[in-house]
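Protein modeling request. Please complete all fields; requests missing the sequence field cannot be processed.
Requester role: graduate student
Desired output: 3D structure, token encoding
Chains: 1
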Amino acid sequence: MSSLTELTLENFRNHTHKTIVFEPITVLLGDNGVGKTNIIEAIRFLSLGKSFRAHRDREVITFDAPAARIIATVAGSGGVTYITCALTHDKKQITLNGVKHPFSHIIGSIKTVIFALDDLDFINGPPQHRRQFLDQCIGQQSKVYVRALLDMRRILRRRNATLERMAQGFAQEDELSVWDAQLCDVSQIIQKERAHLCATLQTHIAREYSDLTGDPRKLTITYCPSDISKTLLVRSRNQDLRIRATNIGPHRDDCIITLDGRSLADYGSRGERRLAVLAIKKAEVHILTDGDDTPILLLDDVFSELDHKRQDTLLTLFSKQQTIVTSTSLPTKLAALNPYTIELN
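Delivered output (345 residues):
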């Protein structure tokens, strides 16, 4: 089982210099505003290659500091891995065991599953949140998928720039053909993997939801791809030119979460949505587990919103992988596990 044994933050958010040692179950205690979530953010940064809270990397650098660093020690069956992520206001650099790598190589070095208070946005937020969930889960397992996402974003930037030049009369329609072909090729990779993930999630989440709630209603996740082909791109060209952006493709995909066929976003209560997210997160743990290689479970201030029964269900996960919890106080049920506790102030 891989585990994070030590983390050092330098000029990351409010932590100018902070070193933390982790155990199998670690609880970060402290009042709101002391930087508990910032530590979770740094760990997640090493999983995804970017922050799950900031739009730009430079936002995580301490105000007025020129750079930030995240330094992690990870122990696994293959030995110890030392990961350093250096961030400045215009670039980032990653080293694994002292050797520089493209930043995309960091993704999946530390696998994580995060459950936070704002995860309700996964169900009732915009489609971008659901696409991000799919991408983050698949990306931690497949560098090919990460490469495809980066390629898609590059192709879309260039195709949209061509649309802009066409609208201004500086480019011809046939210039789109090369981008159309490339976008279709990379879309096949992305949408195939997203469809596979949703199908795999479905094999788990109905049972997980039933176990959590005793509710016989069936929880379902349905992948809704934005179909794309060269023919469809040609057909949508007039609309693309009107808005000067590409209307179809993986960047427009979505997935819908239903309970007995009714949309949870539209009709679900807050409690039903929270339990659905918990069921999906438990399924994600299963998916990211590969033999003894298990993801780190990150729980950001969630115990306060779960009743005792749901807390018990969550605690059953703790023995299966390393777990890092943030809280303003130590929940009684969690205290019974005798976790390693760090008080922040």
